[in-house]
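About this split. The held-out portion is used to measure sequence recovery: a designer receives only the structure tokens and must propose an amino acid at every position. Recovery is the fraction of positions where the proposal matches the reference. Here is one held-out target exactly as it appears in the evaluation file.
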């Protein structure tokens, strides 16, 4: 059956395409329901599946084999010798059926993959959305915006998307760059009068577009116009688009309303600071990758004292590894405290627990009462103010803030909303909160 199909394919396809992609295929098994074929490597099998499976199926249909399921797998034992074009061929300088253009991107970090990304409550949705986008699962749409503060993992996710796509579908034309790089390309195109090449690259030679730090487009009117034109074309053609920024599209200052609308056209999702449980998992993973043995006590100490920016966790692990090697000593609590003290700033020492105790003193109530189930106004109001200030002034997640008051994250969300609305309506409440904020800032910032 496969030999007969190859004859039909030889007539249908250009000589170069047949020689490179069809002739090397071996038939491992065929019966009335299945045709199992093999290629020399994963790239080969993926490429043939994406570009020639439909043609192969048409040939089988011509042979009256409409019910045959075609499957590919890598042949680990067969002939691995690369096939060359027929002698004397003057065919292409690029692979047959390869779309014009090629990927362009910043250097990818080898460890920034989906397997290395630690998933927790704070980043579950962004991770799921990026993974779906990488797998061409459009259940969440074709466009994605990931908002996150510094060091929370947005670059890790975009690198992971690029890694996955290029490993699974090497022929995909993926352009991965920062907003500053995009602006630089645009300025260079205007200066050198090469805007036609610029537009050809992004309008017609792009299957996936990843742009980081889009908040940097603020105030750049011409760049916003060009990006907007690119987005319109790519969205109309169903291409994949991922943006990242430190703020949500609605909060980016000095951008055109139409451009803001395009950025918000798909799913907008946020990576929040990791909660304690997620920080513990991250520290374990980083320590394991570095070959550093840490006890549960030490892991928990690091997780309690290093919040927010994950890069500081990496810095602590590197510092502990270096200290352990130089002193030829197993990592202990004293060593961890020494390293942590050199990393965290005074502002980072500010936590929900510190704010809770401070507010309790200011309102002359007891911490134990703020942690109790009571809803008396004399206790509930200071508790809500403390939660509001903790959310505003620390990088802690909702769950971590809630735990300082024996509450869950939903109570923190409710408290923040209540105090925000009260400040808008009542000048006295606003004055109290601003006064407490200034006192904390003077002490910790």
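Reference sequence for scoring:
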């Amino acid at each position: 059956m496969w030999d007969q199909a190859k004859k039909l394919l030889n007539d249908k396809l250009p000589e170069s395409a047949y020689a490179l992609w069809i002739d090397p295929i071996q038939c491992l098994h065929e019966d009335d329901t299945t045709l199992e074929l093999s290629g020399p490597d994963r790239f080969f099998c993926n490429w043939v599946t994406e570009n020639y499976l439909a043609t192969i199926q048409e040939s089988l249909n011509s042979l009256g084999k409409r019910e045959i399921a075609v499957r590919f797998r890598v042949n680990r034992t067969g002939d691995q010798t690369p096939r060359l074009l027929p002698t004397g061929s003057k065919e292409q300088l690029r692979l047959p059926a390869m779309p014009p253009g090629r990927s362009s991107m910043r250097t990818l970090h080898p460890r920034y993959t989906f397997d290395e990304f630690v998933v927790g409550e704070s980043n579950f949705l962004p991770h799921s959305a990026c993974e779906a986008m990488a797998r061409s699962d459009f259940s969440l749409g074709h466009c994605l915006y990931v908002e996150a503060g510094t060091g929370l993992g947005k670059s890790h996710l975009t690198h992971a998307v690029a890694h996955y796509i290029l490993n699974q579908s090497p022929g995909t034309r993926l352009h991965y760059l920062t907003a500053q790089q995009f602006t630089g390309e645009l300025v260079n195109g205007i200066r050198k009068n090469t805007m036609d090449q610029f537009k050809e690259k992004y309008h017609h030679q792009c299957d996936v577009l990843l742009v980081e730090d889009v908040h940097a487009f603020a105030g750049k009117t011409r760049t916003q116009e060009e990006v907007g034109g690119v987005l319109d074309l790519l969205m109309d053609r169903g291409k994949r688009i991922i943006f990242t920024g430190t703020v949500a599209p609605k909060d980016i200052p000095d951008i055109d309303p139409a451009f803001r609308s395009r950025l918000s056209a798909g799913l907008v999702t946020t990576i929040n600071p990791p909660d304690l449980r997620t920080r513990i998992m991250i520290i374990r993973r980083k320590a394991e990758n570095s070959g550093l043995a840490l006890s549960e006590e030490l892991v928990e100490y690091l997780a309690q004292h290093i919040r927010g920016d994950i890069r500081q966790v990496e810095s602590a692990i590197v510092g502990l590894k270096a200290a352990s090697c130089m002193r030829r000593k197993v990592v202990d609590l004293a060593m961890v405290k020494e390293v942590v003290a050199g990393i965290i700033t005074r502002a980072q020492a500010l936590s929900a627990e510190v704010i809770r105790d401070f507010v309790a003193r200011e309102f002359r109530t007891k911490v134990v009462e703020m942690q109790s189930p009571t809803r008396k106004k004399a206790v509930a109001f200071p508790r809500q103010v403390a939660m509001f200030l903790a959310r505003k002034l620390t990088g802690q997640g909702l769950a971590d803030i809630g735990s300082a008051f024996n509450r869950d994250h939903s109570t923190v969300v409710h408290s923040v909303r209540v105090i925000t609305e009260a400040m808008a309506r009542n000048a006295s409440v606003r004055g109290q909160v601003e006064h407490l904020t200034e006192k904390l800032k003077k002490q910790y910032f």
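Annotator remark: Strands lie at 26-30, 34-39, 69-74, 104-105, 143-148, 174-178, 208-212, 240-245, 267-271.
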